[in-house]
Amino acid sequence: MTRVPFVGCHRPLPFRISIPVEFFSMAAEAHMKSPQTQLGNTPQSLQNYPVPPPPPPPLISKNLELSRALTASSKSALFSLSREDVLFEDEWLIAVNKPQGIYCESILSSVHNLLNADQGEQVKLQELHLSNRLDRDTSGVTVITKSHKVAAKLVKAFTDHMVKKTYLAFCIGTAPKWENIIIRSGHGRSRHGAWRVYAFSDVGRTLPGGSFIRDMETLFEVLSVNGKGCFPASSGSERHGEKLIVVEEKSEITCDTDKTEVLVRAHPRSGRTHQIRLHCQYLGIPIRGDVKYEGVCEWKDTIYEGHELHAESLSFEHPVTGQSVLIQAPLPLWASQALA
After folding, report:
1. Per the structure, how many domains does the chain have?
2. Which of 110, 143, 178, 261 has a CB 3.0–4.6 Å from the CB of 131, allowing a cystine?
3. Could you read off the pLDDT of 113-172 as tens digits, one per residue?
4. What are phi and psi of 158, to 5 degrees?
5. Across-strand partners of 328?
6. Which residues sit opposite 331 in a β-bridge?
7. Assigned domain for 46 exists
8. Could you tell me which of 127, 178, 175, 183 has the C-alpha nearest to residue 150?
9. CA distance 219 to 216
10. Alpha carbon distance 152, 168 (integer Å)
11. Closest CA to 171 of 130, 223, 122, 128
12. CB 183 within 8 A of CB 282
């Protein structure tokens, strides 16, 4: 029904205005037939926006993700760190080994309790800052700064790509035909709000929500296939002569063929949300347990409650002393078994 505005009138008028129903019908019909309205009511209105090459997340992932989130909330509320979880600490920084299925906000509050209880320090929670934020089900190195000034310096180092990171991922998919590979693509939110891989040529273009597509790049190296370590497993310098994939269209690799267990090390050269998970999906080796990005949740009669991605190491220049810092987290069981 069309409403007629009464500009500048704050009280009801002492008389009624009667407008025939046919008037509204004719007006509505004329409005619907206008070129502008027809353009807005059809998919044509989205034709100028970039289209992500990979498929959208499977519908089954929504229910599983909700269940996992509720479980993680309960675990996180009861979580506490011990001194055995501390990987590095000095006057300005503390790094801990975050377990799978715990939210980073709980890590922050737990570090606050640990510092105040064990050392008698009166550290204010507001002074602590997460330097790197891991996904709920990603385990491994998490760095927390103890003051605002140090936080600003370390955040800048992350932003300027001065921090080197390595991750381990246990994947189930098509056996790779490469030893190491660089994948370069775009990254952004689709009109449904999900993070997606976009063509590299679309970097800088606007998305339906008003954000922009940004670039992301990851180097992968294969460590083992079906439990057999066919390539070096050390986390040393990146190798040369890698194959390069620049994403411009849908991946030709599918996950519906014979599935293989693949352990990879990832060197993200940018820091986008879900970067490694998205690139693993595009390469046809989604991470085990990562139902959001086509990973299997059940494998060999075992149900996995989260994706198997581990922040193995961080290396950077200390924001205060200037010295080189390398922080490594112990391997999770799934990684140790794959490398045994």
Report:
1. 1
2. 143
3. 999 886 666 778 889 999 999 999 999 999 999 999 999 999 999 999 999 999 999 999
4. -65, -45
5. 313
6. none
7. no
8. 127
9. 11
10. 28
11. 223
12. yes
* 202-251 pLDDT tens trace: 999 999 888 999 999 999 999 999 988 765 444 444 445 578 999 988 77
Confidence of residue 93 (pLDDT cuts 50, 70, 90): very high
Q: Supply 59's token pair.
A: 């519908």
Contact 307, 290 (CB under 8 A): yes
Report if residue 74 sits inside a domain.
yes
Residues making up the chain, counted from first to last: 340
What token pair was written down for 269? 């050269």
Q: Could you give the CA distance from residue 247 to residue 153 in angstroms, rounded to a whole number?
A: 33
First to last CA, the chain: 71
- The region that residue 183 occupies, defined by phi over 0 for left and psi between -120 and 50 for alpha, beta otherwise, is beta
Residues annotated catalytic, as ranges = 135
Looking up residue 207, the CATH number of its domain turns out to be: 3.30.2350.10
Bridge partners of 215, per DSSP, are: 186
Say which range, 13-17, 147-151, 215-219, 291-295, has the weakest mean pLDDT: 13-17
Helix, strand, coil percent content, the chain, rounded in steps of 5: 30, 25, 45
The values of phi and psi at residue 315, to 5°, are -135, 135
CB 234 within 8 A of CB 340: no
- Domain hosting 90: range is 60-339
DSSP character string of 60-110: HHHHHHHHHHHHHHHHHHH----GGGEEEE-SSEEEEEEPTT--HHHHHHH
CA–CA distance, 181 with 241 (Å, rounded to integer) = 9
Question: Is 97 within the bounds of a domain?
Answer: yes
Q: What is the DSSP letter of 12?
A: -
- Whether residue 226 contacts residue 263, with contact meaning beta carbons closer than 8 Å, is answered with no
In a domain, 200, yes or no: yes
**By three-state DSSP, how is residue 194 classified?**
coil
CB burial readout 194-207, b (16+ within 10 A) else e? ebbbbbbebbeeeb
Global pTM reads: 0.81
Number of Cα atoms under 13 Å in the Cβ half of residue 197: 26
